[in-house]
Structures are given as structure tokens and as C-alpha cells.
Structure prediction request, 841 residues.
Amino acid sequence: MAGKIACGVLALLLAGTSNVEAQTVTSRAVPAMSLGAAGYYEVPAANVLVFSNWYDGLFADAKISGVEIIQQGTRIATNGDIRLSSTPGQWDATGRLIDRKVDAATGTITVTLEYPDHNWRYRIRSERRGGAVAVTVILDTPVPAALAGKAGFNLEFLPTAYFHHSYMADGRTGTFPLYPADAMTATPDRNAASGRNEGPGAEPTPIAQGNRFVLAPEDPARRVTISSTAPVQLFDGRNQAQNGWFVLRSLLPAGRTGTVLEWTIQPNSVPGWLRPPVIAHSQLGYTPNARKIATIELDRSDRRALPARLLRIGDDGRMTPVRTPPAKRWGDYLRYSYLQLDFSAVRDPGLYVLEYGPTRTAPFRIAADAYAGAWHPTLDVYFPVAMDHMFVNEGYRVWHGDAHKDDARQAPVDHEHIDLYRQGPTTDTRFKPGEHIPGLAIGGWFDAGDFDIRTQSQYQVVRSLVDTWERWRPTRDTTSVDWTRRRTEMHVPDGTPDLLQQIRHGALQLIAQFDAVGHAIHGIVEPDVAQYTHLGDASTKTDGLIYDPSLKIGEEKNGRSGTPDDRWAFTSKASALNYGSIAALAATSRALAEMDPALSKKALGIATKIWAEEQGHAPDLFSHGNTTGGPLDSERFAAAVELLRTTRDPRYAAAVQSLWPTIEAKFGLHLRDAVAVIPAMPASYRQGMIPAARAYAAATEKGAAANPFGVPITTGGWAGSGTVLGTALNAYLLHKAFPEIMPAEPVFRGIEFLLGHHPGSDISFVSGVGTVSKEVAYGNNRADFSFIAGGVVPGVLVIKPDFPENHEDWPFFWGENEYVIPEGAMWIELAHAAQDLAGAK
Prediction:
């Protein structure tokens, strides 16, 4: 494990020294590498993972695969594998994992992979070699002719880890560039990762070459030495795309089998190094009567008994210790050990900091209004910025112009597209492939850090915003929205509650889909990778003119254009999408009844009509990825619930009741709908829910004991803020309906997790909320290493088997840092819920 102390004598020698001094004292020693029980290689302060993680298939390259290096608490290298270009991008081909075998006795890991399109398999074998790991590439058949000169072993290094650092290649020196500016070589084919959709292709040229590289020789935290049996070239992947990394690469020789390449990878080991403690806590603070737990995360080799203290900040800057019980050991979780400091008894309002030894937090409040306004940045900034088909202005700044005025063209049939979109064998519309579908250039939000409209996200957000409106009626008005002029002005009130305006904006896109083609569509997405990767003003993605195939590319005539840049609409019928969309429209009809009676009536008319149609035929079961709705019964139940809440029509009550046995079996997934409809159902419905409610509450408390943070922490390729939000909102709804069964505490555990009480760091995962929050995130402005206030990021990504990670220095980790609109809407709900319950206390 990182930070393991090599021997007792050395530990005593270094006990009184700083980490820098420890590094100086021990720099000559090279401890032997070991293969630990967790299945990765270890020396003090460094780990080498060999295919502990694998591409999750969503976008292939998530920068969590192959050979990886964790050094002094930071994962600095990844994607050590055979790749087919010098700087592969997100959609480039990757090998497919066949098996991974760990031999603890010999300290070896052998991984078999293949490129099935080329009928070619290879093995990557690793073994301990002193303080290093030797990685060999073994071929039973030579590199296929089609891959000769392309297949090579790559290892990618995080650019921000090496900014302001140097390297040596066979003794020749260089420094890592802060910004890419290397020569490029023209190629006949464009790399899909380049973000260019016209002109010739180009590939980066190497910065340096040698058989032995030393990265950051001056910095013990970043020093890595690599020796190879073949020449190694250093590339800057950012020349190809902004999310590229520094890449070390050796080409595989043609015509050979057996061991064709060997690299010796030696991260710098620093015996006695200890990862600085992290004091996880809520960056927003606490209400006076709240439970207040700070969790102190420690290197497992940290045996120091340091004081944990709460300090009150005076107006003169003086820090006054506040009496608290001593911190208690919680135990081990993932790769760290944990203490917990309970300062719940401290109720005096004021400013405070927490301290553990030399580690001190940023200030936070104890105040009755601790949660008041926590949702303002999300509604005031994040959602206006996400508005598609609008010009969005904030003071001196234009966030983006009126985007996608040329929406949208019918997607081609039998086509599997990027971002999990797919069109079936027919269009299921009256439009031919490539034909313009009128009426879609209205409403909706950019789904995430990208600019597509994903229908499933749209209706989730609409329903969430309606729930917020109906429970708490927030009338905050800081945004002016003019749909006639297609213009949004931030920080300018217009007399209408902003929440209702956002509900209307989402509903406009859902209604437009039914008007245009008669059913809900999967979404509207860019026609190619070059547009999809666009970073900048969304209005510059297309020319805003409807495509006319009779015109030449670049030609414009009568408001039409010969440039085929219009987004594509994916339209295969899916009953699940219909049900999800009409659930949102039924909810919309309630929320907009006073603000926009005509639209309210239209929304309900569509919802009731489509429901009736769906009952008259077998369901359309087209399904692909995450763009065609949730499970059919789940979406049907949601539609019945919202229609019943709106109309009180007994037909929908009967549908709710008939679906209940299916819903009860997966109660946690449907809890919010099941509970929300209680007032519209007979008393027997609520009574019948009690066993499921009890079982869910018991499971929630049991799950809370699994880690020191008391929330479900997921381990997939997309981190789990959404799961935490959903679990906390479930707890709120169940607590309100069954306070004798579900306590309120899980709600606060959830919001505190989002606000900094989580593994790996103490940063708030809601940009602009809390003293220290996400300031480098995967929004559509990520190329600027910036953020959008109010956006919620996925959060803690567990790099298997045991490394919790969230980078604040590199925005392009979409699994950790990408804003998505459903989480934004859920955050608005959760912030209201916490304030509600805090007020109740």
C-alpha cells in the first residue's frame, strides 16, 4: 500500500522529519517491488497496476485501463497497452480483454487481449524486477500486415502532473510543454479524435526519443524511469485533441513472435512518505442542531497520534479551540484508514475550521440558514447556460449564441452512432433519411458537457423541477427568458419564477417531438465526432441554416445551406420513451396551469392521447444504450403516476395498482413515484407499501455501515454522485410519508457527501457551492480548465481495486467531472429537502 514504511529503524530515523526531508534521506534506497494481496505492485509511496481496470465500453477510452502508476497519492499514468496510433483518442480502437491471471507465487500478472477485427491476439506479462516492474509484450503470431508500423506499446502520462517539469531521454534534456505546439505530419486520413471534420489528416511528431527516459528527475513525487529494449518516443497528445496526454510509445517489430518488447518501469519510491491527511466535511457547513461528523482519511501507514480539533474563528482572526470528544477510529476502507470526530454538540453559530495535526480545512459555517441558497447557482447559472436553442447572455459575457437553429435531420437507418445513439431498420416517421424534420429547433437543454439533446435526460429534469415546484414553490426570479426572441439574460428578473421558465423550456422540446413525428424520439445529436467534440460557443457548431442537398458545401441560398452540419434526430419508436415523456408532460401541465394555460392544456392533451395509444398496441421495444428510456414497466408506472396526480382519473389509479407487484419487487428504483402517488390512491395502497418501506429503510441503514460516509459509493466507470442524490431523495420522500420507518439522517448524509464529506478529498462536488468546490470540471467550457457554477460532477471514481479519485487539475475525466442536467435538477431538490428538514428540527 502507498506509504508503507520499509523498516522500523528507518521509520524512527524519519519520525521527526518532513516529507521533503524523508525524500532526501531515502533517495538512494530502492526498495524491492512486491505484488500485494490487492493484485497490484507496491513499493513505498508508489503502485503499479496492471489491468486492474478495463475500458467499460461506453466510450472505450476513459483513461482507466492497462498499466497504471499511482505515485505519492496521485494516479499519474494509465492506458499502458498495445494501441494503433501514437496519440489514440476517445473513439480509437482498443484491444479486447480476454483474461487476466495473477500468480502471487511468482509475482507475475499475465493478460491476454485481442483485436478481433484483425484476428490478432497478444499477451502482456509483468513481473517484479528489484524496485521496478518489467512489462513484456509476447506474440504467438506476428503483428498483422495491416497493423505493421501502427501497433505499439503506449503508456500515457497525465499532462498536469508534468507541467513545469523536465525529462531526460538517453541523457538529452527537455521540458514538458505547457501548451502543445509541436510539428505535425500530414496524413491521408483524418484521425476521428482530432475534432476536425474537413481537410487533410495530421499526426503529431515525437518530442524526444531514446531507450531510457527519466520523467521529472527533479521531483520525487513525479519521477519515473523507463528503460526499453526498443526505441521509445515521447508524444504530446494535446496536439491532436485537448484531452490528449503525454504518451511514451515503442512500435512493435514486424514479422516477429515471442517476446518482442520489454519495458522496465520504475516509479520513484520514497520510504517513510505519508499521504497528508484529508479532513472530509461539509464545505457548506451545518445547522446548529445537526449531526456533525468529520471523517479524517489517513495513509494506512500513518501511525501518528495527532490531535483532531475544532477551532472557532473570531472577527480578529484568532482561532479558539472548541471542546469536542476525541476522534475515534472508524476502521479501514479502500486503501485508507479513517478516524471520525463527532462535534454534534457544538451548536453555537459562527465560523469554524477543523484541524488534524498540520492539516487545516477551509472555513465553514454553523448557521440556521446553512442550506439556504445552496441551489441558487444551479438555477441561476447552470441551467440557463445549458439552454439549447437560445442566445444566453450574462453581463459582459455571451455563454453561447442561438444554437442549432437548423435542427434536425432524420438519422440514417440501420446506423449505430456515437454516444449510444442508434437508428433501427426504419425511420418510424414520414421523413426519409437525411431529410429535415421541421419544428425541433426549440427548447431543451444540452445534456452534459456535450451539446446533444438526450430525451431521457430532458424528461427526468422536467419531472424533478416540477417536484421542486410543487413541494416548495420557490419563486426566485433572477433570469429573463424571451422565447420569441430566443434570448436568455442571466441576473435580470422578468417577473416569472425561474423554475417555471426552466420547466417550460424542457417541455417545449418534448412537445415539439410529438408535434414533429408523433412520438418521443431518442434525442438530437451531432452527425460526426468532429462536431461532437466541439468546445466553444454552441452556436458555431453549425451554420444555423437548414441543409439543402442541391447546394454545394459552403453554398448558401434562400436561407438554406449546402453544408451538412445539421444535427441528426434518432427516431425509432420506443414505448419506454413515450411513457417517460408523457409523465413529464402530465407533470408540466400542473406546474404551468397558471403561467401558461395553453401550453399546460396542450401538454396534458398529448399525455392522455399517447397513453391511450400505447394501451391499444403491443409495446415498441426498440432499445439501445441509455438513450431509449428505462425499463418499460418503470416508465409506464411513472406515466400512470403523473397522469393520476394530474387528472385523478380512476383509469390511471387502476394502472398504478396493477403495476404495483412489479414495482414493489424493485422498490428502491421506483420509490419516489410510488410514494408521490399515495395521496391519489386509496388507503390500502399506502398500507400495502409498508413492508417494502421497512425493507428499504433497513437496507439503507445496513448499507450506511459499509463505509465511513454512510452513503452508497459506486465502483463503475461513471462515479456515483447521482446514486447518492437519488438515495438521499428517496430517504426524504420515505421519511415524509413514513417518518416512523425512515429517519431523516440519510438525507443529510447524502447532501454532506456532495458537499465534501467523501473519500479522496474534501472538495464540494457542486461548483460554486461551499467554500472549496469544483473549479475545473467537464462542462462545455472544459478546454478553459474552468467550471459552470451550480453544475454537479459525478464525483469519486474508484479506480479498482481501491483508489478513490477525483481530479481537480484535469477536467477531461468525464467519469469524474462531467456535469449532467439530471444531477443538477436533483441537487435543487436535495438542497430544498435538507433545508426543509433542518427547519423542522
